[in-house]
Design goal:
Leucine Aminopeptidase, subunit E, domain 1; about 170 residues; alpha/beta; globular; single chain
């Protein structure tokens, strides 16, 4: 079973084999975490992502990490659901993002993975519900990943993830 940690910080500076990008279907970069990862990884990330696009919500694909600092070797791109009030199977799609990302990490041989809070930014997913889904899904995942780090950009998200992990 993987060790699960919650930290607050910049996902592009995590000491892990792979980081997960909360991407849009084009995989070409955007705002929030997606934009930060693209800026840190450099312009080759956009070209690599575009070659794999489109990526449907709930799925995940990987690219090299390019200009990100080692030990980060891979960026796993996953497309979360846009919140539509909970009537469009958003919870299942969000859980799939975490599961599929860990499956991709396993296929890459990654032993440590850092996740952002997927879909809680411009996609509008309620952060408290998203934290519970993130923790429940990674906790129950069948994976060879040894360390799963949930990286919160702000204190409020950190506190929600920490509370979800404590239950």
């Amino acid at each position: 079973m993987a060790l699960i940690e919650v930290v607050q910080g910049d996902i592009t500076r995590e000491d892990v084999d792979a980081i997960v990008n909360a991407a849009n279907p084009s995989l070409r970069g955007g705002g929030g975490v997606d934009g930060a990862i693209h800026r840190a990884a450099g312009p080759r990330l956009e070209a690599a992502g575009a070659a794999l696009a489109p990526c449907p919500p709930g799925d995940a694909v990987a690219t090299p990490a390019f200009d990100l600092d080692p030990p980060i070797r891979h960026v796993i791109h996953t497309v979360g659901p846009v919140w539509r009030g909970g009537v469009a199977d958003e919870a299942a799609t969000l859980a799939s993002c975490y599961r599929r990302s860990l499956e991709v990490a396993d296929s890459l041989g990654a032993r440590s993975v850092a996740f952002p809070a997927i879909s809680t930014g411009v996609f509008g997913y309620p952060p408290d519900h998203a934290a519970r889904i993130a923790v429940d899904t990674v906790r129950s995942a069948d994976t060879r990943v040894e360390l799963i780090r949930l990286v919160a950009f702000d204190r409020a998200t950190h506190d929600l993830l920490t509370a979800a992990l404590a239950t």
